[in-house]
């Protein structure tokens, strides 16, 4: 009954078959102009995850219009700050349904951190949260612990329990203690950082436990730092599978750096306002002096050697 009610809320302009959506996405204007070939959706590399409601409201209407134009370049929508818990249930379901209509997954973001802290790590409360997320239509559950001290074994238990509840576990790891809360550079510096090896070892343990992907926290690396820790980025990319890591990169200079150094198929998390800029960079049609005409792909969909 509720699902029927939700569907009835969708405006007529929303309604389009998946076949029609794919048809529009597969026929951009100016196809005679060459540009980089990228993997088609659903893809396993070159993923773009965008931030949903948090710094700005993102409504179902806005999201549908955005993805109607740019959905071919977006793979996932991520909530931040637990914003979804404040939305009316029918509106949240509608937003998730719009994302799914455009073949995008929906991630909870790292709100489980608050669930853990307010429940003293209660397995019963966590299970109720995971069940509610699954029933609401979420696909991916990010497992963050930037503010918490959690043994690796407990993180692994969370990965396994998340998978048992039918969600894709996506642990977030980083080198910065206290990351994820819009802290200042001074606050983060006073908290200290971890050795990159610590982060990489745990990421490997989470992948072994069945993690779908690893999110690399940007704070302490490229965000809220006086100088970027490019050594950490190099350590991550040389130690972990490229298709299993996603970098937070909600800054044009940061995602340009990742594309320049990892190529067009880097998995990146950005703000929804940056979709166009990143798409132009991946496709190699525009950029800054350091990237213009320099981003190339070979052997991808549409350009495969025969």
Describe the structure.
- This protein has 306 residues and is α/β, with parallel strands linked by helices.
- It has one domain: Aldolase class I (TIM Barrel, Alpha-Beta Barrel).
- 41% of the residues lie in helices and 10% in strands.
- The chain contains twelve helices and eight strands.
- Strands 3-2-1-8-7-6-5-4 form an eight-stranded parallel sheet.
- α11 runs parallel beside α12.
- The longest helix is centred in the middle third of the chain and has 14 residues.
- The protein is globular, with a radius of gyration of 19 Å.
- Belongs to the phosphosulfolactate synthase family.
- InterPro entries: Aldolase_TIM, ComA_synth, ComA_synth_sf.
- It holds the Pfam family ComA.
- This is Phosphosulfolactate synthase.
Arrangement of strands in the largest sheet: 3-2-1-8-7-6-5-4
The first-level CATH class is given as Alpha Beta
User: Helix share of residues?
Assistant: 40-55%
| Residue windows where pLDDT falls under 50 for at least 5 positions | 11-24
CATH architecture: Alpha-Beta Barrel
Content of β-strand:
5-15%
Quaternary organization: single chain
Shape: globular
Number of strands: 8
In total, the number of domains comes to 1
Structural class: alpha/beta
At a glance:
With 306 residues, the protein is of the alpha/beta class. 41% of the residues lie in helices and 10% in strands. It has one domain: TIM Barrel (Alpha-Beta Barrel).
Record the SSE blueprint.
Blueprint: H1 2-9, H2 18-25, E1 48-51, H3 60-70, E2 76-78, H4 89-101, E3 105-107, H5 112-119, H6 123-136, E4 140-143, H7 152-164, E5 168-173, H8 185-191, H9 196-208, E6 214-216, H10 230-239, E7 245-248, H11 252-262, E8 268-271, H12 275-283
Parallel strand pairs: 1-2, 1-8, 2-3, 4-5, 5-6, 6-7, 7-8
């Amino acid at each position: 009954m509720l699902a029927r009610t939700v569907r009835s809320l969708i405006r007529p302009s929303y309604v389009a078959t998946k076949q029609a959506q794919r048809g529009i996405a597969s026929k951009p204007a100016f196809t005679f102009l060459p540009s980089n070939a990228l993997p088609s959706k659903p893809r396993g590399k070159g993923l773009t995850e965008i931030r949903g409601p948090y710094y700005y409201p993102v409504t179902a209407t806005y999201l549908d219009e955005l993805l109607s134009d740019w959905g071919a370049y977006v793979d996932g929508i991520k909530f931040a700050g637990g914003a979804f818990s404040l939305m009316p249930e029918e509106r949240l379901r509608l937003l998730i349904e719009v994302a799914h209509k455009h073949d995008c997954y929906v991630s909870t973001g790292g709100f489980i951190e608050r669930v853990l802290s307010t429940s003293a790590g209660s397995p019963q409360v966590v299970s109720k949260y995971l069940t509610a997320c699954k029933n609401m239509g979420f696909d991916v559950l990010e497992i963050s612990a930037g503010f918490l001290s959690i043994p690796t074994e407990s993180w692994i238990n969370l990965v396994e329990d998340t998978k048992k509840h039918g969600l894709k576990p996506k642990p977030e790891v980083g080198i910065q203690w206290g990351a994820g809360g819009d802290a200042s550079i001074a606050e983060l510096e006073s908290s200290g950082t971890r050795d990159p090896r610590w982060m990489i070892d745990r990421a490997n343990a989470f992948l072994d436990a069945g993690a779908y992907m690893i999110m690399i926290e940007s704070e302490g690396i490229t965000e809220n730092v006086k100088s970027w820790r490019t050594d950490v980025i190099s350590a991550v990319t040389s130690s972990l599978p490229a298709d299993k890591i996603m970098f937070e990169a909600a800054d044009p200079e940061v995602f340009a750096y990742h594309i320049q150094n990892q190529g067009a198929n880097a998995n990146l998390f950005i703000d929804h306002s940056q979709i166009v800029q990143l798409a132009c960079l991946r496709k190699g049609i525009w950029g800054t002096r350091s990237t213009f005409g320099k981003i190339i792909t070979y052997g991808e969909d549409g350009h495969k050697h025969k």
